[in-house]
Design a protein that fits this description.
binds 4'-phosphopantetheine, three-stranded parallel β-sheet, 162 residues, Rossmann fold
């Protein structure tokens, strides 16, 4: 059975990777779904995010990576999946996640969201903070997979160091 792990993954962090690994322990397969948001232009292209995820999971055949624009429930129906995986970091995540989980179940009865509580090492790690810190020259090497750290450094270079 596959569990869908949706998100922006701009970029994938060690927190996401932890959820994927633990999700694999519960479900035979995890489909990492990069949600295309027409209102947001990310730092990394969808193709780049895809490459980062494949590299981070070392092309584990149990991890599928896909990109989708539209309702998550429509994607889930199309592939016959009924489980969504999400990581929960802090209380601040809860309300948004609670709303999404219930909205998805309203739209697709029987669809369940399984929350994995983020490990202590990763509870403060988010893609947006990682992007900000990296682009301002901070060290994020312990927070993201090596390929992402290198790609963030490469993104910073065009800004030029003073
Ligand atoms: O990593 P993020 O940005 O917190 O992920 C949010 C995401 C992609 C899971 C959410 O925005 C989503 O499911 N988008 C797909 C469109 C959709 O189904 N929206 C209604 C959600 S109730």
């Amino acid at each position: 059975m596959t569990a869908i792990y949706p998100g922006s993954f701009d970029p994938i962090t060690n927190g996401h990777l932890d959820v994927i690994r633990r999700g694999l322990g519960m479900f035979g397969e995890v489909t990492v779904l990069i949600a295309k948001n027409p209102k947001k232009t990310g730092l990394f292209s969808l193709a780049e995010r895809r490459v980062h995820i494949h590299a981070a999971v070392e092309d584990d055949p149990r991890v599928k990576v896909d990109v989708f624009e539209g309702l998550l429930v429509d994607y889930a129906r199309a592939i016959g999946a009924k489980v969504v995986l999400r990581g929960l970091r802090a209380v601040a995540d809860f309300e948004y996640e609670f709303q999404m989980a219930n909205m998805n179940r309203h739209l697709y009865p029987g669809m369940e969201t399984v929350f994995l509580v983020t490990s202590a090492d990763n509870f403060y790690v988010s893609s947006s903070l990682v992007r900000e810190v990296a682009l301002l020259g901070g060290n994020i090497d312990d927070l993201v997979p090596p390929g992402v750290a290198a790609a963030l450094r490469a993104k910073k270079e065009p800004l030029g160091d003073p």
